[in-house]
Write a structure and sequence with these properties.
The protein is 46% helix and 16% strand. The protein has helices at residues 15-30, 47-63, 65-75, 82-92, 94-102, 113-124, 158-166, 191-197, 219-226, 243-256, 273-278, 289-297, 311-321, 334-342, 345-358, 363-372, and strands spanning 2-9, 33-40, 107-110, 131-135, 152-154, 174-175, 205-210, 233-238, 262-267, 282-285, 301-305, 325-328. The chain is globular. It starts with a strand and ends in a 6-residue tail after the last helix. The relative contact order is 0.13.
Length: 378
């Protein structure tokens, strides 16, 4: 058993934090560490740098997604520009470096590349001897995740392992155990019971629309288009932390009423996503690594709407390739696509089975167990 584990993430998007908290929960359930703590690295950087990291992704995702795609591709150059990144990161992360130097943790688990790069650098300089593992939170492995000093990589699938091996990473330190999601998503929950609990009709196709934890997405436009559905349906509109999106969803729901062919249930930020997913048949939204992994664990068909170029585009590609999702690049035909899917019950069932086959509901616990078996003595 490890004495202390530090799980490091950065709140640049919601997924890295969700993965870290999932691992923290798994550790507490497994009792494989005496002390475990999930820490946001950006709380230990300069205020300006933290603001840039936290705000830039959200703003670009909502207003200029093509710039995110350009930046993703431009920086996806394995083993290049490491020195330039480290100069910037180290200059802005002095308090985090001090935290690492003072830390008594046996192991660092990184669900974001910023802490893993800094830990790798400090180890190379002989300033710390903390071992680390890197947990990749998207299906594909971007070059920013690469480290010189790491005990184990955890990735989504064997294809990602093969890619890392091509880059010179030993296969013995790469484990395709999936993206860690909260263990609660592995718990089976009765669909009808969850619908009753959350005020949903028991006999309607249920579509969960997710705007992500920070409320990024064309929610109002999607909901209005989905009102054109010919099949009876109910829509659970998860708006995240965005009050603006919640207000938009409320307006569309009021206009639609409670007696029509399509009923909308707006929901703000919630900690009961596993229950809403258990109540649903289909999820519509952006394919972030964590939301996608949660949906797959619940056997939901993922209808991807206008994925952001870069990691979302790649995540969507893998969903299509596995037969677990559809991609809608024109919101104007979203209702048509959903009607075709709902109206073809055998196809919907096949895709739900494919989603379950691509899922890793026990990834968090499996990663914790795998770490426990590693030779991590200094």
């Amino acid at each position: 058993m490890l004495n202390e584990v530090g799980i490091y993430y950065a709140t640049a998007g919601a997924g890295h934090k969700s993965a870290a908290l999932a691992l923290e929960h798994a550790y507490k359930l497994s009792n494989k560490a005496k002390k475990v703590r999930a820490i946001d690295v950006l709380d230990y950087t300069s205020k300006a740098y933290a603001k840039m990291c936290r705000k830039t992704y959200i703003e670009l995702a909502g207003k200029k997604p093509h710039l995110l795609g350009w930046a993703y591709d431009k920086t996806d150059t394995p083993w290049q520009r490491e020195r330039q990144r480290l100069i910037l990161e180290a200059s802005q992360s002095r308090r985090f470096i001090k935290h690492l130097e003072d830390s008594t943790a046996d192991l660092a688990i990184c669900t974001h590349f910023l802490p893993s790069e800094l830990i790798s650098w400090l180890r190379a300089k002989g300033r710390i001897n903390t071992r680390q593992v890197v947990v990749v939170t998207d299906i594909d492995v971007h070059a920013m995740w690469l480290c010189r000093n790491v005990e184990q990589y955890y990735v989504k699938q064997p294809q990602s392992k093969a890619y890392l091996e091509k880059l010179g990473v030993p296969g013995s330190i790469i484990s395709p155990l999936g993206i860690p999601i909260d263990p609660v998503f592995a718990m089976p929950k009765d669909k009808q019971a969850m619908r009753e609990k959350h005020g949903l009709l028991p006999d309607r196709t249920t579509i969960l629309v997710s705007a992500g934890g920070y409320g990024v997405g064309p929610m109002e436009v999607m909901l209005k288009e989905m009102l054109t559905l010919k099949h009876p349906a109910q829509i659970v509109a998860i708006c995240g932390k965005s009050e603006e999106l919640k207000a938009q969803a409320d307006r569309v729901a009021r206009a639609a009423g409670r007696e029509g062919n399509v009923i909308i249930h707006p929901v703000g930020f919630t900690k009961q996503m596993d229950e809403y997913m258990s109540a649903s048949d289909i999820v519509v939204g952006k394919p972030g690594g964590l939301t996608m992994s949660e949906a797959l664990a619940k056997g939901l068909v993922y209808v991807v709407v206008k994925p952001i170029p870069g990691q979302e585009d790649r995540n969507a590609h893998h969903l299509m390739m596995r037969g677990a999702g559809l991609q809608c690049d024109d919101i104007e035909v979203l209702g048509f696509m959903l009607d075709e899917l709902i109206g073809n019950a055998p196809r919907l069932s096949r895709m739900q089975a494919s989603a379950l086959a691509f899922a890793h509901p026990y990834a968090a616990m499996n990663i914790v167990n795998s770490i426990d078996a590693l030779p991590l003595a200094a």
